[in-house]
Design goal:
The protein is of the alpha/beta class. It contains 9 helices and 16 strands. The strands form 3 sheets. The protein has a 7-stranded antiparallel beta sheet, sandwiched between helices. A 7-stranded mixed beta sheet has the order 11-10-9-8-12-13-16, sandwiched between helices.
Length: 290
C-alpha cells in the first residue's frame, strides 16, 4: 500500500498529491511517470512524476479529474492509500546543453513540463517558457515555472488572465524576434502539440512532444499505447513518452484516444448518478476523471 501524505486542489478540478513511494522517489528522473491503481478492481492510470523527495520517500503527482478513476483519486485524503504505485516508467528526458530551449505547457501539460524544464535549466540552458490554459481557473504552476525560466509568457485562450491567445502565438513571437532555438518541448492536449509542431516545422526547430495515449500494463506487453512515429510503430510506455513532434502521426493518435469515449461516459454517468443519491437526498458535487 502507498499512503497519501498530502492532497489539495490547485486549480479547477486539478489536484496535487504527495504519495509515499520511497523506491520510486530515489530512482525517478525528469520525464518519467507512474501507473497508479486505487483498488484491486480499479483502472490503471499513468501520471507524470512532477517532483520527488528521496529523504521523505515521497513523489508528487498532479492530475485533472476528468473521468471516473481520476474523480475517485481526487476524493482520496491524507491517510488513504493506493494499492499499486508502479514506476518509474518510460524513458527519462534526454538532457544536454542545447542553448536556448522553449518549453511549452498547455493546461495540465504544465505538470510534466515542470520537472523537464527544471532539469534543462539545471544543465545550463537558457529557458524560454510558455504556460497556457483555456481560462485562468485552469492555469497551474505559473510561479514554479517562472522560478526556473529566463523568460516566461502566460496565455489564456479567453483572455481572462495575462496574454489573450494561444501558446503558439507566443512561440511564433519568439521565432519572429530572432531567437536561435535549439529545442522546443511541448506538452499538453494533442491539438496543441500538433499546432506547435507545425509552427516549428518550417524553421527546422527540433520539437519534442510528450504523449499520453491509452495505456494498460505500461511495460510494452499489451500494445495499447502504440503510436506511429516516422512511419514506425512505437510503444509510448517503453519507447517514450517523448517523441519527435514532426514525426508523430497525430491523426491516428486522436482516433485511438477516442476508442473508449462511450465507455468512459457510461462510467462517469454511473458515479454521478450514485453521488446524487445521498442519504439526506442532497446532491454531491461531482468531478471528472480518467
Amino acid at each position: 500500500m502507498y499512503p497519501i501524505l498530502e492532497t489539495k486542489e490547485i486549480a479547477k478540478n486539478v489536484f496535487l498529491q504527495k504519495v509515499l513511494a520511497p523506491r520510486v522517489a530515489k530512482k525517478r528522473k525528469a520525464g518519467q511517470f507512474l501507473v497508479l491503481r486505487r483498488t484491486d478492481d480499479g483502472e490503471r492510470i499513468p501520471l507524470t512524476i512532477v517532483s520527488s523527495d528521496a529523504g521523505e520517500g515521497s513523489v508528487t503527482i498532479i492530475f485533472q479529474a476528468v473521468g471516473k478513476s481520476t474523480t475517485e483519486f481526487a476524493r482520496m485524503k491524507p491517510g488513504d492509500s493506493y494499492l499499486d504505485v508502479v514506476g518509474p516508467l518510460g524513458l527519462a528526458t534526454h538532457i544536454e546543453k542545447f542553448g536556448t530551449v522553449v518549453g511549452i505547457g498547455g493546461g495540465i501539460g504544465t505538470a510534466p513540463l515542470l520537472p523537464i524544464a527544471t532539469a534543462i535549466k539545471g544543465a545550463g540552458n537558457r529557458l524560454l517558457s510558455v504556460v497556457g490554459a483555456r481560462t485562468k481557473d485552469l492555469l497551474i504552476l505559473e510561479d514554479e515555472m517562472r522560478a526556473v525560466s529566463d523568460e516566461i509568457v502566460v496565455t489564456t485562450d479567453d483572455g481572462s488572465y495575462a496574454k489573450k491567445g494561444f501558446v503558439t502565438t507566443a512561440l511564433q513571437e519568439f521565432i519572429d524576434r530572432g531567437e536561435k532555438i535549439g529545442l522546443c518541448i511541448a506538452i499538453g492536449p494533442v491539438p496543441m502539440m500538433r499546432a506547435v509542431a507545425e509552427v516549428t516545422r518550417p524553421h527546422g526547430i527540433k520539437t519534442m512532444v510528450s504523449l499520453n495515449p491509452i495505456m494498460v500494463d505500461a511495460t510494452g506487453m499489451c500494445g495499447a499505447c502504440r503510436v506511429t512515429v516516422g512511419g514506425t510503430t512505437k510503444f509510448v510506455c517503453v519507447d517514450g513518452p517523448e517523441f519527435d513532434g514532426h514525426q508523430v502521426d497525430f491523426k491516428e493518435l486522436v482516433m485511438r484516444n477516442r476508442a473508449y469515449l462511450r465507455e468512459e461516459k457510461t462510467a462517469m454517468d454511473r458515479i454521478e448518478h450514485k453521488d446524487g443519491k445521498c442519504m439526506d437526498g442532497a446532491a454531491v458535487p461531482a468531478g471528472g476523471g480518467n
